[in-house]
Amino acid sequence: MYHIGAMNDDSGFSHKIYQSIREIPEEQWNKIFPPISEGYNFLKTIEETFFNEYKFYYIALYKEKEIVYLAPFFIAEYSLDTSIKGPLKALTTGIKKWIPKFLTLRVLISGSPTSLGNAGIKTEYTKELTPLFNQTVETLAQKERAGIIGFKDFGEEYTDFLDVLRPIGYHKVRSFPSVRLKIQFKSFDEYLGSLSKPTRKGLKKKLRKTDEIPIEMKVQGSLGPWLDQAYELYWQTVNKSEIQFEIVPKEFFERVGSNCSKKTRFFLWFLDGKLIAFDLCLAYNGTLVDKYIGFDYEVAYQYHLYFLTFRDIVRWCISNGVTTYEGGALNYEPKKNLDFVFSPQYIYCRHLNPVLNIFLGLLTRLLKPENFDPVIKLMYQDLRTLEKKKDFSWSVYWLILLTVVIQSLSELLFKKAAIATNMHVITFANLGLYVHQISSNVELWAGFMFYVLNFFIWITVLSKADLSFAFPIGSITYILIPLLSVIFLHEQTNFLQWMGILLITIGISLVIQSNNRKEKQCP
Fold it and tell me: What span, in angstroms and rounded, lies between the C-alpha atoms of 265 and 309?
């Protein structure tokens, strides 16, 4: 155990960093950690079998003697191009042949290498804990010479806890979504009936062909004599994937059955006595979590093994009272067609160097998964649309009005700065004098500062409202600027100009009414 001690004499909190999960009593872990499939014994298996790839830590926070926060962490050499595919992936792979560490950074990550992010938190201390445990995490990162701290694949249930990190420099980006299928059917045929007609027709056609083949399925708690064959199928599947995460060692498949005997389910499919597919799942509390799959690609496409294994697992879930089937990451297109529900997951990350942290933010947004997978992109677009409808409020109108006022003031100041030069004709002969006079004008620089401020407020507006709505409303400047010009610059405005301003006013009111109507129709 790596002990740091009290955080603050007045806070009453202290923290400890454990170097092995075995240092933490299982009953203490279960008392604070949410009951999930990838619990204490699963993480112990990860620690026992991934020790060559990762260095593991467990951070615990205590309020006096009561544990109020507990989470696994690990040190990894993380490649930032993990989530990308296509031509850009080919480019980065080519560069790594010459520069092996290209886009690879030493990172301290909260979570597990093989599962979604989870932490045990006493919710009554949520707001107090976040800044306090950040001190501990930074200390550990510095000790391990990790330049980046990351929180990997945390769901929306952790938003209140982790969003507090954003003001201190953490970037929040969308990760690979998790997928779940609710098993609310009495039979697989009933499930088929709930799918769209094209999906149902295509799936029936594929399964009709596989049913002509004598493929046998077994379900057991360990791989036993098929360990080597299953691991070969696992590697075939890994090599087929454009995106590769952690490479699971053979020892993991061997030990998970004994360490997690009550949860582990190995689904095995045989053809003429030969193993042609396997799927490692964890069954717990009415949920089946799909972890790792492997196919024999000599027959995988011919016998539609992906859909065959899916059908058999759903049937097993129905027969064994499982109500939720959590699918594996990646391969989202068929899962979307099979009516899996997508749930967003998020990564929070920060570089300890403030300057490099700016570039990290830009890089993570460039390399986020939705930029390389149209299904993920569509899912998150739908989510953003719902969030905008949910979050839209009168504050957006006030922000737009604020940008109008600031932009109008900046234009007014620019005009006054131009007038102050008293130069109505600019030529090469007087260009230098003009630049000198206008650049020394206080009103010019004040206008410029207003202009920059307006830019950042406008970006905030666009994060909350559609451009097709915000931009027309922003045209209030075409009304305000002429009014300010008349009042402060004594400019003359004729009848046609006032009529144009009236038409703009009518147009803005129509845009506002249209938006209000859409808001009322939003469920």
Answer: 14
The whole-angstrom separation of Cα 478 and Cα 505 is 9
DSSP 8-state assignment for residue 328: P
Q: What is the maximum alpha-carbon separation in the chain?
A: 95
Question: The pTM is what?
Answer: 0.70
Report the alpha-carbon distance of residue 155 to residue 343 in Å, rounded: 8
CA distances from 162 to 118, 152, 223, 285, 353 (A): 12, 11, 39, 27, 20
pLDDT, tens digit only, all 523 positions of the chain:
554 444 444 567 888 899 999 999 998 898 888 778 888 999 999 999 987 889 999 999 888 888 888 999 999 887 766 666 667 667 777 777 787 777 778 899 998 888 888 888 887 877 777 777 888 899 999 999 999 999 999 998 888 888 888 888 999 998 888 899 999 999 999 999 999 899 999 999 999 888 888 899 999 999 999 999 999 999 999 888 766 667 889 999 999 999 998 999 999 999 999 999 999 999 998 999 999 999 999 999 999 999 999 999 999 999 999 999 998 777 888 888 898 988 889 999 999 999 889 888 888 888 788 887 888 888 777 666 555 554 555 567 778 888 888 888 888 888 877 777 666 666 666 667 667 677 777 887 887 888 888 888 888 777 767 776 777 777 777 777 788 787 877 777 777 777 877 787 777 667 656 554 444 443 3
Torsion angles phi and psi, residue 72, rounded to 5: -80, 145
Residue pointed to by tokens 């990351």: 150
Rounded CA-CA distance 348/174 in Å is: 9
Contact of 164 with 127, CB cutoff 8 Å = yes
3-class DSSP state for residue 345? coil
User: Is 227:250 a contact under the CB 8 Å cutoff?
Assistant: yes
The DSSP H or E segment spanning 476 is none
| Alpha carbon distance 401, 340 (integer Å) | 42
Count the neighbouring beta carbons within 10 Å of the beta carbon of residue 292: 20
Strands 104-110 and 148-154: parallel
